[in-house]
Amino acid sequence: MDNQLRVLICDDSVLIRKKLRTTLEKCKCKEIFEAANGNEAVELVKLNNPDVIFMDIVMPDKDGIEALKEIMEFNANTKVVMASSAGTNELLKKSLEHGAFDFIQKPITLEAVTNLIDKVLKEGTVNV
Fold first, then answer.
1. Max Cα–Cα distance, the chain, nearest Å
2. Which member of 11, 57, 95, 111 lies 3.0 to 4.6 Å from 64 by CB, making a disulfide possible if both were Cys?
3. Is the pLDDT reported for residue 128 higher than 60?
4. Neighbour order of strands in the sheet with 31-35
């Protein structure tokens, strides 16, 4: 099943970005962009207007929550999925308060990504 989603992966770990890209390709996303930190993510959002963003919370330069706030100001319809390791419940709660669509626990699995992509597609509010 092909979908028309444009997806941004934002994580300071090259390995996590690579694994997530491979997983998203299996979900047949239309376009996939990558950012290594929150600053890059905000710039890529302004250039490419992705439908979904997988955003790490803890990153150098600009963390995921700061980037989330800026992205929500730019386009509140963007679905931002916060990715976190165990033990970041307070940060997850804070990100949901600032407009995050959902969250995903690391290590990220194909099943978790597939479920989130399905949830986004069911909502039917992709950017045009």
1. 37
2. 57
3. no
4. 31-35, 6-10, 52-56, 79-84, 102-105
Other beta carbons less than 10 A from residue 78's beta carbon: 22
Distance CA 61, CA 25 (A): 28
The answer to whether position 65 is within a domain reads yes
Would residue 107 count as lying in a domain?
yes
The domain that holds 109 is classified in CATH as: 3.40.50.2300
Structure tokens at 121: 């597609």
pLDDT at 16 over 90: yes
Q: Total structural domains in the chain?
A: 1
Q: Supply the pLDDT for residue 78.
A: 94
Identify the domain containing residue 87 by its residue range.
6-123
Containing 10, the helix (H) or strand (E) segment is: strand 6-10
Q: Does the global pTM surpass 0.70? A: yes
Flag whether 27 is in a domain.
Answer: yes
Amino acid 119 reads K
